[in-house]
Write a structure and sequence with these properties.
By secondary structure, this protein is an alpha/beta fold. The protein contains ten helices and nine strands. It has two domains: 204 residues, Rossmann fold; 59 residues, 2-Layer Sandwich (Alpha-Beta Plaits). Helix 1 packs across helix 10 and helix 5 packs parallel to helix 6. The structure holds iron/sulfur cluster (2 copies). One iron/sulfur cluster (SF4) binds next to helix 4.
Length: 289
């Protein structure tokens, strides 16, 4: 089984649109939505839930009011203003730093694990699909991304591929998205900030010595910057495996919760089909098949 992580230096580059399209075109695969801050594939991928588990991704303070003598030291200490005048912990403000537990003279405060979301595995018509939904105010983490990837692996059944929709950026959530992957596909747009974002995310992949490939979305909106991206990739021996043209009908399709494939856009379908076959060929060249 080969794991392909689709990443981008920032959100909105079309990464998830590419992954959701590939979820139709690629046979014999599983899908992991590791964009835990803003998952959206579950809107498109419908199926029966095989597994749902609460996820405890943070620590939070609990005050035992039966022990509390209302001295106020915890409130003075908490720089997040997470303790109310009634000495209750305001869950959305508590960062779980533990400072309040250190100053309480009555040992009335303890830290406990706090539920921050749920993980899901679904059986969809496009294959087994793993994702997570965070509770309001909760933050994603590399640990949650790892959990989403772990869950999809628990259901593998000799599939050939796992398509990972990675978290945008370069932080620990991205590292968790690409660690152990067989290849990284960075999706970029032809803007000046797009180049800089691409360079950063490719830098992360290079650091982990992962084979990288690039896909340029809406390439025809700025051919000069597209050329710049291609030159940057050529100089570093990073194959550009596809260039997707700008097409307003893609936006319309997404508004209807459809991929460009489902919307019947033959031009984009052809391009994305080529992207996958080029990726397979490039991976064969580097001995990944
Ligand atoms: S754990 Fe930290 S953030 Fe939470 S209430 Fe205590 S001092 Fe405030
Ligand atoms: S420090 Fe302890 S005893 Fe004092 S107000 Fe806070 S919980 Fe109550």
């Amino acid at each position: 089984m080969k794991q392909i992580a689709f990443v981008s230096g920032k959100g909105g580059t079309g990464k998830s649109t590419l992954v959701s399209s590939l979820s139709i075109l690629v046979k014999d695969k599983m899908i992991a939505d590791c964009d835990v801050e803003a998952p959206n594939l579950h809107i498109i991928l419908k199926g029966n839930i095989l597994n749902k588990e609460d996820y405890y991704g943070a620590k939070g303070a609990i005050i035992d009011l039966s022990k509390c003598v209302e001295c106020g030291q915890c409130r003075e200490t908490c720089r997040f203003k997470a303790i109310s005048e009634e000495f209750n912990v305001i869950r959305l403000k508590c960062e779980g730093c533990g400072a309040c537990t250190l100053v309480c003279p009555k040992d009335a405060i303890r830290l406990e694990n706090v539920k921050t979301g749920e993980t899901y595995v679904s059986n969809t018509d496009r294959g087994t699909y793993s994702y997570a939904l965070l509770d309001i105010g909760a933050e994603g983490s590399g640990k949650l991304v790892t959990e989403v990837r772990k869950k999809v692996n628990e259901y593998k059944d000799n599939e050939k591929w796992i398509l990972i929709d990675g978290t945008p950026g370069i932080g620990c959530v991205v590292i968790a998205s690409i660690t152990g992957a067989d290849a990284v596909v960075a999706v970029s747009e032809p803007t000046k900030s797009g180049i800089s974002d691409l360079q950063r995310v490719l830098g992360v992949a290079e650091h982990f010595q992962l084979p990288s490939f690039v896909c340029i979305n809406k390439y025809d909106l700025n051919l000069e910057v597209t050329n710049e991206i291609e030159k940057y990739c050529k100089d570093r021996n990073i194959p550009v495996i596809g260039k997707i043209p700008f097409d307003p009908s893609i936006i319309k399709a997404l508004q209807d919760f459809k991929t460009p494939i489902e919307a019947g856009n033959t031009r984009i379908t052809e391009e994305i089909t080529n992207i996958w076959s080029t990726l397979e060929k490039e991976m064969a060249k580097i001995g990944q098949f």
